[in-house]
Amino acid sequence: MTKKFISRLYNNYLEEDIIFCLSERYNVDLTTAMKIFYYSKTAKKINDKNSDIQNLNYSDLTECVIDELK
Length: 70
Prior knowledge:
- By secondary structure, this protein is mainly α.
- It has helices at about 5-25, 30-40, 40-45, 60-70.
């Protein structure tokens, strides 16, 4: 496995955890939680290679998304 593959795999699980957390916190279905997440600035930062935000844990990143909604 390459470092790039492991990084992409980690990001996929990270995004999944954030989406599940959003779904539970807002009591919405997963499709709605996905829309909330993927339209957020946080999602864009996670996929930005120049950002280290993806090194935060999923609950902190979920809080970042929630803060954006306020």
